[in-house]
Amino acid sequence: MRSLSDMVSRSDSRVEVQPLDDLLQRLWQGKAELHRRHSTLPLPEKVRLVMELQRIVMPMIARQRPLRSWERPWEIEP
Amino acid sequence: MSAAFYESKLLPHASTFGQGVRAGSRLGGGAGIVFFPVKHDHRAARSAEEARLAAEIVEEPLAAGPPPDRAALKWRRMPFADTLRALNTMKAEGVIAEYGIAGAMAMVFWTEPVPTFDLDVLVLMPPAEGALISLQGIYRWAESRGYKAQHEHVLIEGLPTQFIPAPDPLAREAIAAAAEIDYQGVVARVVRPEYLVALYLQPQAKTPKRRERAAMLLALPSLNREEVGAILERHGLSF
After folding, report:
1. What are phi and psi of B3, to 5 degrees?
2. Least enclosed by CB within 10 Å: which of B1, B6, B69, B221?
3. Which residue has the higher pLDDT, A16 or B221?
């Protein structure tokens, strides 16, 4: 029976392994940067994003419960 | 049809919601069945009078001619700023005494966009006789402008808008302290983030979604934390 170490290919040793904390830290920083960028967008751009979110979440809500009459994507100009 | 046969539960598909005949037609906005009485006598299966009326109704929007190009069609979509302008008109005409945009759309003004389908507007109603607060004035004004009421919303320039009479001193204070923000040349009164946090922390409003929004606002570098603390203390609220 082969051991686990036998199943790892030699090339795997070249993969740079980072501590999980560092990786998570970079992910959180990336998310924080995305949130910051969205927060500072011009207002019409934010309204456009709201309309985009509506199109994304509407089918998700519809899978959980019947949609309410006003739960429709807006047909407006941001 | 929806109201007559399906307890208003039959709703249009997202792609057709808001469709209607507009340009110069007596059908007005929206879609559905419209009744026009036609007087005629001794007719059973055919009626020239009804046919004439049907032809007129079809001709009306056609007489306005086709839109010049697709850019013009795009222009006909109602701008968000028009909804804000309508709120200011309501105040100028005394329909409401004061207002402040609250809820998720207020968040959009201060932080990143969050999904929402309506515009929440906290309102102070003009002084009225008696202790009861009525939204009838708002509904009458909306009807006179051709804005349709949909359950608890009024469709203002294409946007489902919910008017919420300030229910307590915190809401009244939030309206009074609202910031005036320019949106494409229109001034909008928006409840400030310090008050939004407090409104979200009210016991009756403490849902997971609202707690999350309060947390988003609390992460704002520009938030005046001392003021948040003072507001919470003044209104007996806590995290």
Report:
1. -70, -40
2. B221
3. B221
* CA atoms of B87 and B188, how far apart (whole Å): 8
Backbone torsions φ then ψ of A29, nearest 5 degrees: -65, -40
pLDDT tens figures, B39-65: 887 777 788 888 888 888 888 777 766
Write out chain B residues lying below 8 Å of A74, CB-based.
117, 158-159
pLDDT of residue B36: 83
Q: How far is B19 from chain A (nearest CA, A)?
A: 10
Residue located via tokens 């998720």: B104
CB B118 within 8 A of CB A70: yes
Contact B113 A71 (CB under 8 A): no
Least confident of A16-30, A36-50, B202-216: A16-30
Average confidence (pLDDT) over B58-80: 67
Higher pLDDT, B222 or B30: B222
- DSSP annotation string for B190-222: E--HHHHHHHHTSGGG--HHHHHHHHHHHT-TT
Query: In the structure encoding, which two tokens stand for residue B44, read together?
Result: 């059973």
Cβ atoms of B160 and B153 within 8 Å: the answer is yes
Residue B67's CB is within 10 A of a number of other CB atoms, namely 13
Model pTM? 0.71
Q: Does B112 touch chain A (CB under 8 A)?
A: yes
Do the interacting molecules here have an ipTM over 0.85? no
Helices (H), chain B: 2-5, 48-63, 70-75, 80-92, 103-110, 136-144, 169-176, 193-200, 208-218, 225-234
Q: Say yes or no for a CB contact (<8 Å) between B113 and A35.
A: no
